Amino acid sequence: MKNHKQLIEETPEQLAEREEQERLRKERHEQNIAFAAEALNAFVTHYPPARNIDEAARFLTTAEILQTINEIYPTATIDAYALSVFLKQAGYRFTPMHDQFNPSFKWMTK
Question: Quick check: 48 pLDDT over 70?
């Protein structure tokens, strides 16, 4: 039993390596959050939300917005759900597009 416990314990080098990996993971996560926030703030600044369809100048899908963010910030990780929640909280509304063969919903922006 004692030998089994020794196999589970980390050496000081292994512990230091694991802690360094965790520190790097946290740093990348914080950088990702900063990039995502910067990208979303830039989107809101350049494409403010439209209150209704008459006020809307552009209609964008969630995928189009994500693609644009990924082109500018390729390391930023934002999923479609998180983006949709952000857009709703920021005052954006979506509308069904009736003039297309396939039904789709697009976010309305000024």
Answer: yes
